[in-house]
Amino acid sequence: MIRKFFIYLSISIVFSSCGRQPYQKFEKVDNKIWNYTSPQPFVVEIKDPGSYRLHVQLRYSQDYPYSNIWVGLTEKKPDNSEEKIRLNIPLFDVQGKPYGSFAGKFFDRSYPDAEVDGKDLTLSFSKAGQYTLTLQHNMRIDALAGISEIGIRLKGVQ
What we know:
2 helices
């Protein structure tokens, strides 16, 4: 009886995780300088419409001159309509300690982080198709030093 229960539980877990698969992609920033004129598009094929949690991923160093970064996110839908939002992403706290994890001389920040930011960022994809999510920094200078990689991560909301 117990053995049948564990077999049933294992099969249920396998099939319940076959839904909306996560998407994650990083792109390197040339010379660790993110230029305003170089927005980074991420093309995502959505097979299962619904709500997805979005995380903006940033890899940065102590060379980054500010405590935060403003990032514009443009979502281009399959019907070519667009939605835009601006994100204020803190990278360092008031004492200058970086948020995120440390890897060599770089810090990895996933925004939003429930512990640091206390919120989720959810996108709703109403139909299947190709979506383009574009990240562009919205700081007051064109060439932003200290950013080595940018990326996104999408995971279906259960």
